[in-house]
């Protein structure tokens, strides 16, 4: 499967906002968005032309897709799945993305970024309901327990990430037990509770053309 291998910070600069793709670096003065708040490339500093309606919709789609670390086909498949469900398609799409295992591992503070979360999942360090799951796109259900495998609890990456995790940063649909390095997916989140600075309705309009 194709994957992005270029510098992650270029994606943030292209969207002109932090997508939190590099973990702790995003919270330091080394963040390129803070130092170079313009698009990458030789024309990045030139005056921005007027953006069309399609351009605005496209940028919003790219922003959310890159934030969750998905390829175009994967993202479109989630949209098609959301389209088949009853309710606001955009909100359902975001809720589906939040149910992904890699996103939940990141939200619990077991990994510094979604990219790191995908890595520790594929390497077999994460359990769901005490069974090893190595598929980052696995969709969690209310009541599912996510934990670090006992043999993996000494991983420095996980310890460093948990040290930086503040209790106030925990989202309301997850609970975390730092002592056992485990968390529970309590319920499917409401859109208002999801800390995502984006307008998913623009994606619905883009794909509806």
Provide an overview of this structure.
The chain is an alpha+beta fold. It has helices at residues 8-15, 32-35, 53-67, 72-83, 89-98, 101-107, 114-122, 156-164, 201-207; strands at 126-128, 131-132, 145-148, 174-177, 182-185. The protein has a five-stranded antiparallel sheet. Helix 3 packs across helix 9 and helix 6 packs across helix 7. It starts with 7 loop residues before the first helix and ends with a helix.
Q: What topology does this entry show?
A:
Layout: H1 8-15, H2 32-35, H3 53-67, H4 72-83, H5 89-98, H6 101-107, H7 114-122, E1 126-128, E2 131-132, E3 145-148, H8 156-164, E4 174-177, E5 182-185, H9 201-207
Antiparallel strand pairs: 1-2, 1-3, 3-5, 4-5
Helix pairs in contact: 3-9, 4-5, 6-7
Q: What distance separates the N and C termini?
A: 27 Å
Number of helices: 9
Strand proportion, as a percent range, falls in 5-15%
Task: Describe the strand arrangement of the main beta sheet, using strand numbers.
Answer: 2-1-3-5-4
Order of helices and strands: HHHHHHHEEEHEEH
Give the proportion of residues in helices.
Answer: 25-40%
Rg, please? Answer: 18 Å
Main sheet overview: 5 strands, antiparallel
Per the principal axes of the C-alpha atoms, what is the gross shape? elongated
Average residue-wise pLDDT: 84
What's the assembly state of these chains? single chain
The beta-strand count equals: 5
Helix/strand/pairing category:
alpha+beta
The unreliable regions are none
Summarize the structure.
With 209 residues, this protein is α+β, with helices and mostly antiparallel strands.
